[in-house]
Amino acid sequence: MRDLERAKRMLKEDRLSLVIVKNGEAIFSSDSSGTNSILQAIDNLGDRLSRASVADKIVGKAAALLFAYSHIKEAYAVILSTEGLSTLRKNRIFVEYEKLVPRILDKNRRDICPFEKLVLEIESPSQAYKELKRFMKEIMRRSG
After folding, report:
1. 22, 53 in Cβ contact below 8 A?
2. Which residue among 51, 77, 85, 122 is least enclosed by CB atoms within 10 Å?
């Protein structure tokens, strides 16, 4: 079974929010929603993410930039934003998705997701990683 197919199956069957598979082996999975899971995978696995396959419930531009930063080979999203799709294509990451949406909203569904706002004008995957990492640290510090 291809890595992407395995990641998709695990995402659905195990009710996860993120699954990363490389060479037939699940190297990371999470049931937590949000950008923090991808940041954790990058911190824990680093270069091991290169050429891996990712299945994620929600992919916007922030996640797409982090996939590019990690040199992900292919991605699957249950929900994908148009900016996420454009970013994946620009970075030559093969993508499959179920539903394309104009934008990723915050938890209250009233405004654009704060992580998406942060990367709105960013095109560089490494700059996005630095900014998202800094923002996540700030959120964690504030929540105590």
Report:
1. yes
2. 51
Answer whether 0.85 is exceeded by the pTM.
Answer: yes
The candidate with the shortest Cα–Cα distance to 109, out of 143, 69, 65, 58, is 58
Distance CA 130, CA 144 (A): 21
For the chain, the first-to-last Cα distance in angstroms comes to 43
Output the CATH code of domain 3-143: 3.40.140.30
By C-alpha distance, which of 57, 56, 94, 90 is closest to 72? 94
Rounded Cα gap, residues 121 and 48, in angstroms: 28
pLDDT tens digits, residue range 129-142?
A: 999 999 999 998 99
Burial class (CB in 10 A: 0-12, 13-18, 19+), 91: middle
